[in-house]
From TrEMBL:
Pfam families: SnoaL_4 (PF13577). Transmembrane segments: none annotated. Residues 1-26 are annotated as: Disordered. It comes from the Bacteria. SUPFAM superfamilies: NTF2-like. Residues 29-155 form the SnoaL-like domain. This is Nuclear transport factor 2 family protein. It comes from Streptomyces lonegramiae. InterPro entries: NTF2-like_dom_sf (IPR032710), SnoaL-like (IPR037401). Gene3D superfamilies: 3.10.450.50.
Amino acid sequence: MTVAARPATTAPASPAGPTGPTRPTGLAELSAEIQQFYARQMQLLDDGEAEAWAETFAEDGVFAANAHPEPFTGRPAIAAGARRATDDFAARGIRRRHWLGMLSLEPKDEHTVFVRSYAQVIETARGGQSALRASTTCADLLVRRDGRWLVLDRRIHRDDLD
């Protein structure tokens, strides 16, 4: 059996401005940028860095979840709520990991993106087995301010709650 060789292909050169690569403009580049944002954000929370995690929200940001009676509004309230939760889990010897996937991006303009994703929360008790704690949808309105993405509005809906 003879296999025909395929012609060699070359990738197009990446666009570059006078001082280097240009800013991402396509959906693929935006998607990679947003995924990097979420990876950093969730790792901050999972590492117990509640205040640094809250800094990824706009100063006037909102965190609402159907598991909480009222939304947390404003970065200080978001930080305080995250600090209480991370301290509680640490005191009980529970490590949490948040996994976001199936991101769907809907750019509104060059500074605003609506992102819907699935999020799973995995808990591991010290010396125990890991278990899926929650399956949720996450709906975020992200805004670019001062060159970085921030959550302006986050809506979490746990699948097991009405």
